[in-house]
Amino acid sequence: MHYREFLVRARLEDDVVKEWLTAGWLIPAEHAGEAEFSDIDVARARLITDLKGDIGVNDEGVAVVLHLLDQLHGLRRTLGDILTAVQAGPDDLREQLLAHLSNATTSSDRNSSR
After folding, report:
1. Which Pfam families match (predicted)?
2. How far is CA 103 from CA 85, 92, 107, in A?
3. Is the pLDDT of residue 114 over 60?
4. Do 111 and 63 lie in a common domain?
């Protein structure tokens, strides 16, 4: 979506979005030299609005939260890639990995109950 539509959907003022773009809190895709916003950008803007408004997080805290959120999404994407590769692999490899994960989970459960 174009910038003006993003402003309406995110319910934000132009100067606020410009600040967030400068801070790197919003990073829209570019198409033909213009910013292209997605539904994810709208959701991120609403999160920032909630953090700064209702929750009262300062700018440094918002940057930390967004960084951690980006890391979490990156890890989820990587885990999905790994799962896809494992599912495409040979059955014996899949069975070995499942056995290893089962053993690791059991060991972790025992250690956390101490």
Report:
1. MerR_2
2. 21, 17, 6
3. no
4. yes
Would you call 55 helix, strand, or coil by DSSP? Answer: coil
Alpha-helix residue ranges (DSSP H) falling in 35-90: 39-52, 59-88
75 with 49, same domain?
A: no
5-24 burial, b for 16+ CB within 10 Å, e for fewer?
A: ebbeebebeeeebeebeeee
Single-letter amino acid code for the residue at 45: A
Domain that holds residue 85: 58-114
Asked if 62 and 52 touch (Cβ cutoff 8 Å), the reply is yes
Residue 63 banded pLDDT, cuts 50, 70, 90: very high
Residue reference for tokens 């890890």: 75
Dig out the tokens for 14 from the structure: 């132009």
